[in-house]
C-alpha cells in the first residue's frame, strides 16, 4: 500500500470511529420511558401536617421560605427531608458527585426508596459520575435515574468525549443547570448548590459560598410542575436505555455496602463534628419556627431552550428577571460567581445608576475563581462598570473570617457560587442563574422570585458579610482612565493593591488568553 492509499485508509477509519463515537443518545420508546408526574402533596405525616398548618396560617397565595446560608445546614436539611419523605423525592441537579457528601445523599435516597418512597433523579449528563453509582441506584424498583442531554455512549472515554463534542458541539454545549430538591410535593430546596463536597464546606481544597431557599406553599407545586416538564422531555434519557452492566440487584447490593462504609467514615470525620457544633438543634428543614412569607414566583427556563438555535427569549427566565431589575428605585445588590454581562446587561446596570439606583455586585476574584477564562471576560468589562458607577467586590480565597466551622477546621479556600439579587430591599431572586452569556443563551436555569423585606434583609446580610473588607476586595478606579486598585483589610489595617491579588501565573495566563479569543458567548 502506497502512502496516499494508506492516508485514505486511515482517514476512512477515523471517520468510522468518529461516526461510532459521535452517535446520538439512544432512542427511547414510550414503553422504555413512561411519563410520570408529581404525586399529590402528602397529608398524613408529622412533617406534612406541620407544613399544611403553616400554609393555612399564611395569606392566600403566599409561600414560606427559609434562607440556607450555612453549607452544613444546606446538606443536613436535604438529608433530614429525605428521611422524612413519605411518598416522593424529586431531585434535579447539574452535578451529583460520587464523593462523601454525594454518597451521604445517595444513601438517604436509597433508604427512602426502601421505605416505599418514589425517587426520581434527573442529572445533567456532562458532569455525571461513574455509572456504577447511578446505574446501581436505578436498579432499585422505587428509583429511576434519567440523564439530561446525554452523550451517545453511557460512559465515554476522553477520546470519545472529544469526538462527540466535535461532532455535536451545538447540542452537547447546552446543559441543564437547574437545582431543586422536592419532597412529598410539600417542601422544596431551590438555589445554587449542586450535590458534592465543595458545595457543603466538606472539601479540603476549595469550598463555595452559596445560597438556597427552603420553600413551602404554592410555589412548591410550581416547582414540581417544572420538574415534570424536564423529566418527561425527550432530552431526558433513562440510564437503563444504555443497557448498563451495573443495573442489576448485585450492583445495588454492592452499592449498599459502599455507601454504608462511606457513611461510617463520614460520621467519624472532623467535618461531622463541625456539623454538630454548627447545628446543635439539628438542621432547619421543617423545624417549628418563623418563615419568611410572601408572594413568590417559580421561574424556570423551558426544556426546549436546550435545543433552541440562537436566543429565544420566550423559552428563558431572562426577560422576567430583567423586569424585576428594571423596577429598581433605590438599590440593587447582586451576587454572581461568573459575571460576564452582555452589552444589554451592562446598559441596564449603568442606566440604573444614572437613575440614582445604587448598584453593587459581588463576584469571584481571579484568585478564588475555578474558571479563570470566565474571569478574563469579566475583567474586560470591569472598567466600564466602575466608571459608570457600579460598585464591584471580589471574594478573597483566604478570608480572615471563615464562613463556617467546617472551613475553619480544614483551612480550605473559599470561592463564590451564590446566584442572587435583591431589589430595593424587598424583591429577592435566588436560583441557579449566573449573569453571564452561558446562562442567558445556553444553559437551562431556574430560581425563585420572592416579595418579602425580611428575606431581602437576610440576603443583603449575606452580601454584607461576604463583602466585608476582611473577606473581599473592592475594585476601585479614582477617575476615568486611571489604574484599577483592589482595596481590602488585613489585621484591621486598610490595604490597597495595584494588581490582581493572590493569583498565580497559571490563572493569569488563562485569564489573558480568554481576553484574546472570541468566546464570550460560551462563558
Itemize the secondary structure elements and their pairings.
Blueprint: H1 3-21, H2 46-57, E1 63-68, H3 71-84, E2 88-93, H4 100-114, E3 118-124, H5 131-138, E4 143-148, H6 158-167, H7 169-172, E5 180-183, E6 187-191, E7 206-209, E8 212-216, H8 218-231, E9 236-238, H9 249-267, H10 270-278, E10 292-294, E11 296-300, H11 318-326, E12 331-335, H12 343-354, E13 358-364, H13 372-387, E14 391-395, H14 405-410, E15 413-416, E16 420-423, E17 427-431, H15 437-441, E18 446-451, H16 453-466, E19 472-477, E20 484-490, E21 493-497, H17 505-516
Parallel strand pairs: 2-3, 3-4, 7-15, 12-13, 13-14
Antiparallel strand pairs: 1-8, 1-10, 2-5, 4-9, 5-6, 6-8, 11-18, 12-16, 14-19, 16-17, 17-18, 19-20, 20-21
Overall outline: globular
Strand content: 15-25%
User: Which CATH class of the largest domain applies here?
Assistant: Alpha Beta
Using only C-alpha atoms, the radius of gyration works out to 23 Å
Q: Estimate the mean pLDDT confidence.
A: 91
Helix content: 25-40%
**Which regions are unreliable across 5 or more consecutive residues at pLDDT < 50?**
1-22
The neighbouring-strand order within the major sheet is 11-18-17-16-12-13-14-19-20-21
Distance between the termini: 47 Å
Helices, by number, come to 17
Based on helices, strands and strand pairing, what is the structural class?
alpha+beta
Amino acid at each position: 500500500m502506497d502512502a496516499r492509499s494508506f492516508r485514505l485508509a486511515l482517514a476512512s477509519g477515523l471517520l468510522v470511529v468518529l461516526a461510532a463515537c459521535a452517535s446520538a443518545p439512544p432512542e427511547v420508546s414510550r414503553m422504555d420511558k413512561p411519563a410520570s408526574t408529581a404525586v399529590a402533596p402528602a397529608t398524613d405525616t408529622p412533617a406534612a401536617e406541620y407544613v399544611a398548618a403553616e400554609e393555612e396560617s399564611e395569606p392566600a397565595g403566599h409561600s414560606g421560605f427559609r434562607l440556607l446560608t450555612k453549607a452544613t445546614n444546606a446538606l443536613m436539611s436535604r438529608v433530614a427531608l429525605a428521611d422524612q419523605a413519605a411518598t416522593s423525592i424529586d431531585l434535579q441537579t447539574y452535578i451529583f458527585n460520587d464523593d462523601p457528601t454525594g454518597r451521604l445523599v445517595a444513601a438517604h435516597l436509597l433508604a427512602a426508596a426502601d421505605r416505599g418512597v418514589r425517587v426520581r433523579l434527573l442529572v445533567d449528563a456532562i458532569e455525571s459520575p461513574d455509572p456504577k453509582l447511578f446505574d446501581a441506584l436505578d436498579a432499585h424498583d422505587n428509583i429511576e435515574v434519567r440523564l439530561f442531554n446525554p452523550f451517545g455512549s453511557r460512559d465515554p472515554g476522553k477520546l470519545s468525549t472529544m469526538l462527540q463534542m466535535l461532532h455535536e458541539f451545538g447540542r452537547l454545549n447546552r446543559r441543564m443547570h437547574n437545582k431543586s430538591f422536592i419532597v412529598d410535593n410539600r417542601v422544596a430546596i431551590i438555589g445554587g448548590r449542586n450535590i458534592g463536597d465543595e458545595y457543603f464546606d466538606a472539601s479540603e481544597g476549595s469550598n463555595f459560598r452559596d445560597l438556597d431557599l427552603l420553600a413551602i406553599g404554592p410555589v412548591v407545586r410550581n416547582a414540581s410542575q417544572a420538574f415534570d416538564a424536564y423529566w418527561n422531555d425527550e432530552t431526558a434519557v433513562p440510564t437503563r436505555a444504555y443497557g448498563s452492566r451495573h443495573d442489576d440487584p448485585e450492583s445495588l447490593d454492592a452499592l449498599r455496602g459502599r455507601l454504608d462504609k462511606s457513611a461510617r467514615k463520614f460520621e467519624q470525620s472532623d467535618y461531622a463534628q463541625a456539623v454538630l457544633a454548627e447545628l446543635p438543634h439539628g438542621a432547619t428543614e421543617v423545624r417549628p419556627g418563623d418563615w419568611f412569607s410572601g408572594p413568590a414566583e417559580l421561574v424556570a427556563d423551558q426544556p426546549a431552550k436546550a435545543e433552541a438555535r440562537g436566543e429565544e427569549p420566550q423559552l428563558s427566565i431572562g426577560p422576567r428577571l430583567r423586569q424585576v431589575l428594571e423596577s429598581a428605585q433605590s438599590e440593587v445588590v447582586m451576587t454572581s460567581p461568573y459575571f460576564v454581562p452582555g452589552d444589554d446587561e451592562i446598559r441596564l446596570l449603568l442606566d440604573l445608576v444614572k437613575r440614582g439606583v445604587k448598584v453593587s455586585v459581588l463576584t469571584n476574584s481571579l484568585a478564588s475563581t475555578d474558571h479563570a477564562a470566565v474571569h478574563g471576560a469579566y475583567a474586560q468589562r470591569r472598567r466600564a462598570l466602575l466608571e459608570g458607577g457600579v460598585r464591584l467586590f471580589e471574594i478573597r480565597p483566604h478570608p480572615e473570617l471563615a464562613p463556617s466551622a467546617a472551613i475553619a477546621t480544614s483551612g480550605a479556600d473559599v470561592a463564590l457560587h451564590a446566584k442572587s439579587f435583591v431589589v430595593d430591599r424587598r424583591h429577592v431572586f435566588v436560583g441557579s442563574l449566573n449573569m453571564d452569556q452561558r446562562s442567558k443563551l445556553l444553559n437551562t436555569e431556574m430560581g425563585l422570585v420572592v416579595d418579602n423585606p425580611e428575606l431581602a434583609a437576610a440576603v443583603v446580610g449575606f452580601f454584607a458579610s461576604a463583602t466585608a473588607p476582611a473577606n473581599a476586595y473592592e475594585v476601585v478606579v479614582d477617575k476615568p482612565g486611571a489604574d484599577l486598585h483592589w482595596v481590602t483589610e488585613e489585621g484591621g489595617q486598610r490595604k490597597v493593591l495595584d494588581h490582581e491579588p493572590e493569583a498565580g501565573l497559571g490563572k493569569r495566563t488563562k485569564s489573558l488568553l480568554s481576553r484574546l479569543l472570541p468566546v464570550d458567548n460560551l462563558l
